[in-house]
Structures are given as structure tokens and as C-alpha cells.
């Protein structure tokens, strides 16, 4: 339900009688988009299939009671996937066999050779490989969905070039269709690079780790800085309590070495194939973002949409 108000710029979107969202004028930004908005709750275990726990945050605005549901989902994902991953690694170590034989597999994929060496059955190996492919396909779908929401939310706050295009929510669909299609097309085009050059694809993929580490370091670092300054953090329903600062420091101590070494090549003698090209991809990306923000972005960017909870008498509005 959309209502116009004289005392709040833009539009107000009301979900029930409690949640009110202030959106930038001219942008349609419903609180819950897509099919998820019709759900009363989202299971904490319903997101364990995502590739990384942080993928949850990009769809926060589509989750009911996100301030409590999201932390539960992220912690559940880490716990469940951590246990299953440990079991998988131990099993793999005991069934790996000859490493050189696996690396020289005629299939071109060592994991398929591992499946065959373990089962000695083409049917079983194909079945296990199919399960892995289906799982990765599902992960790709969730990644495209979360990437499109991240693109939409940043564009909604006027933080990107062509923000009005990316922030548009298609009437009747209740999803940012433009952002979804752009994310899907870019993902498909990047996958086609592998046809021409596996080296070029690896150069693009190498940017993933450094970008993720940068995002984690910046977000955790900002929270830690506020704690060190004694500044009050915003009200939240999920809190780390007195352990928060220690966990933040431990997280940064863990992330910084990974960030630094993610730029290193795997071998001492480096050529075009063994070179880690992430630094070549990372620095231009950071440079472009910095230049854009300094000359244009800081004059257009607005604070993220604020969700205000208050009692509203709809009959008086």
C-alpha cells in the first residue's frame, strides 16, 4: 500500500500497521519484493545452500523480520556447511589415491576421476558428478539473484552510473527486472570467456577473493572503529555482546593475511600462465570506483533507505 505524506519526502510503503519505509522520491522500493514477501517467515536453514553466508544480506529487504532471521540463517549456514565440509575433506583425504594420476585424468576434471577411482563405476561417478553440477547450478542462481539485489539497492541510493535504470522496479513483477537481466547477461558473458581462453577466465575469477576480502575488511573495520571510539552502535536485535570487539579484531587478523597473499602467485617462477592476475584486475576497479565517487558519486549518493517502526493509524492518513 503506497501513501503520500506531506511530512516525509517521497513515498511511504506500509506493511501491516507497523513497518514504514521511506523511499527516495520517484523510486518504487517496496519492502518485500517477489514471492518471498508473501511469506510470514523465512527458515534460518532455508539459505544454507548459498555459496557464501554473506549472500543473505543482499536480499535482506525481501525477508520478513530480517534483523533476526538473517543472523540465524548466516550462523546456521556456517555451522552446517562447516560440519559437512569437514566430513567431505576427511573422506576425500582417505580416498584420494595417487595425486598425479588424478591430475592427469583424461576427463579433464580431477574430481570426476576421484569419483570413479572410489566407486569403480561409470554410473556412480556420473551420478555423483551430476549432483555436484546441479548444486553448483543452484548456487549460481542464488548468486545472480543476490547480485541483482545488491545492484538494485546501490542504484536506488544513487551510488552507480545509470542509477535510474538499475533502480527501476517493474510494475506487476515487483522485482528489479533490469538489474536481474544485467546481472544474468554479465554472468553469461563472463562464462563465455572460458571458450576462448582459460587463462583470461582465471584472471577474472581471481578478482573474487580480493573483492570479498576487501568488503569484509571494510565493513568489519568500520564497526570496530566505532567500538574503539566508544560510539554507540545502531539498535539491533542480534548482538555479539561483550565479545563483539574481540570477534571483530580476530576477524580482521584472519582476513588481512588472506587479502595480502591473495595477490601472490602460486609458484616462485612466474610466467603468463602461473601469474596471479588479480592485482591487475583489482587496482583498476578500485581506481575507477574512487574517481567516480570523488567527481560524481559523492554529489549524488544519498543515505540508504531508512526503515522506521512506528504505530500508524491508517484511518488518519
Automatic annotation (TrEMBL):
Q: Which domain of life is it from?
A: Eukaryota
Which molecular function GO terms apply here? transmembrane transporter activity
Tell me how this protein sits in the membrane: Multi-pass membrane protein
User: Which InterPro entries does the record match to this protein?
Assistant: AA/rel_permease1
What keywords does the record list, in alphabetical order? Membrane, Transmembrane, Transmembrane helix, Transport
Output a single Gene Ontology CC term carried by this record: membrane
The subcellular localization recorded is: Membrane
- Mostly located where? membrane
Q: Where are the transmembrane segments?
A: 82-103, 123-145, 165-193, 199-225, 245-264, 276-295
- Among the Pfam families in the record, one is AA_permease_2
Q: What is this protein called?
A: Amino acid permease
Source organism of the structure: Aspergillus kawachii
Q: What is the lineage of its organism?
A: Eukaryota, Fungi, Dikarya, Ascomycota, Pezizomycotina
